[in-house]
Amino acid sequence: MEEDQATSFGNIVLKSFCPKILIISTPNYEYNVILQKSNLPDQEDDPDEKACRFRNHDHKFEWTREQFSSWAFQLANSHDYTVEFSGVGGSGDCEPGFASQIAVFRRKPAQNSNGLDSHNQELVHCPYNTIWEWSAVIPPDHETLSSLYRHRDGIVDLSDEARTGT
């Protein structure tokens, strides 16, 4: 994905789909010096020089913490979201920060004229339909199944001895 596409992506998702929460992660360009054990080049250098410093050969861009937070704050403010930052790998408390940076966007409650959260009502400004839902049914463990069969029929025993004939 190109950098301009990433910028458009955030706008499209928050404007068109209006998710309650959106989580975006991206490499922290500043952390590459640790991963590659090399000096961090200035991002204004020759693009061919810069490309070999990205985390992976197929990356078209990588943002510093400042670039990422600037993009995220602007996006959140434009679409009535809050944004919090975190990361994975490394530490946010010391340089150069996390290896991968994370932004968590949360939709702000929209107040209607009655002072109630209008997002609890049908979303008129963000029309989308649920096209598929899935709920997991966790099967009971072996002992629970054995107990159920024994109690239901009074004779079925699913213990190891009964199944193996020993």
List the uncertain runs. 120-124, 151-163
The helix/strand class is: alpha+beta
Helix tally equals 6
Specify the overall morphology.
Answer: globular
* Biggest sheet layout: 3 strands, antiparallel
Strand content: 15-25%
Helix content: 25-40%
Topology order in helix (H) and strand (E) letters: HEHHHEEHH
Largest sheet: spatial strand order: 1-3-2
> How many β strands by DSSP?
3
Q: Indicate the radius of gyration in whole angstroms.
A: 26 Å
Account of the protein in words:
The chain is of the alpha+beta class and 166 residues long. The chain contains 6 helices and 3 strands, in the order H-E-H-H-H-E-E-H-H. The protein has a 3-stranded antiparallel β-sheet with strand order 1-3-2, with helices on one face. It is globular.
